[in-house]
Write a structure and sequence with these properties.
Shape: globular
Structural class: alpha/beta
Number of helices: 19
CATH class of the largest domain: Alpha Beta
Number of domains: 2
Largest sheet: 4 strands, parallel
CATH superfamily of the largest domain: Metal-dependent hydrolases
Strand content: 5-15%
Strand order of the largest sheet: 4-5-8-9
CATH architecture of the largest domain: Alpha-Beta Barrel
Amino acid sequence: MANSFLSEDFLLDNPTARILYFEHAAKMPIYDYHCHLPAKDIAEDKQFTNLSEIWLRGDHYKWRLMRVNGIDERFITGDAPDYEKFQKWAQTLPFCIANPIYHWTHLELKRYYGIKKILSPDTAQEIYQSANQMLQSKDFSVKNLLRKANVKLICTTEDPLDSLEYHRALKKDGFEVSVHTTFRPDKAMNLDNLPELNRWIDSLRQITNVDVKDFQSYIEAIRIRHNFFHQNGCRLSDHGLDRVYSEDYTAEEIEKIFLLIIKGKEITGIQKDKFKSAMLYEFALMDYERKWAQQFHIGALRNINTKMFGALGPDSGYDSIADFPIAAPLAKFLDRLARAEKLTKTIIYNLNPADYEPIASIIGGFQDGSFPCKIQVGPAWWFLDTKDGIKKHLRTLANFSILSHFIGMLTDSRSFLSFVRHEYFRRILCNFIGSEVESGLLPNDISFIGQIVRNICYNNARTYFGMSCPD
């Protein structure tokens, strides 16, 4: 029997799934509302020199697998030549069967380069040379890669101190793919590194001309940057947290803690939690006032290997799923905002699969009728964007909420080739719904269900965020 790997019907197990995918999902453009792509590379229309640079540099998903496969760090983040690093990835990938990265890798080769061969040590040189030759063409510049993937909008992620010069340049040059920024103020509450936090505060003083000397002036200065982001097209914030913070506190307590911070004096664990609780509340008020959506990525245990963190820094593949208590503090945080009538559109991303059901049940208690599914469970993220993780997420939404209002997938990536993850998600989505139809659990109304699929793939996100993008 012929090898059907990555065939036209990949992940589509029934006739209805195939109809939903090919006649509805596949035609929809991409609205990628959360990623970590460098706006500079887009504005300058970067051209990558080789497949290692565009594929392996900065991709901690692949780095983790290479380490598991026993590859020396020199060939991962070290000084080995690019081709040798690629060879080590080609050596690793054949052992990664059933891992989603095995699928993504071959989808990227096929969709972007037209390469249908399986990557292995035997094919590495041929694939590397063929892809590199194509990368020299202007057709493979960053902007053309976005066009090739049918991307209409992406949201990058920036610190509040960012100048946003590249976003302004993109708007000025009329690039047809909308590139928006996202306000990510994690560094403003980095209480685990007070010297670094104080350097950030010093920079905030300089850029805003605010004499930050107490908590109120600190919030005033951050609000100036929040307004600056809004003026430059930002319509959403993002927070990378181990958990949502919602401790009770008084204004006097927070002022005292802030004075300790700017003096560089150590603060206790409960003081950290109170200060982070106050900061998150203030950020949420800013977002509500500007009618932004707020995103919370929770449940990561970061930098667990302190030796490697010291050598390579963050985002190097040394994070894991955490098991912090999530439900009670999240519910308390949302309730605090709801009581004040300051709860804006909110997306909660969980990293621990055990948190799907608690979060999905909590958000049902804070929908206020002002917008369909105003509070959302974010798509399967990071360790969960596998076939099984995506299916669990879809099933949870169907069981606890309204799947039809889901705002769809995103890449959360630093790679310009990662948009195949939307295809991966869409095929799983169509198979999930198609299987329900084939089993008699849903009516065989392809027109109606096809519209739901199109909405999840693109329309819902466009309506939810309200950011402009071309038709």
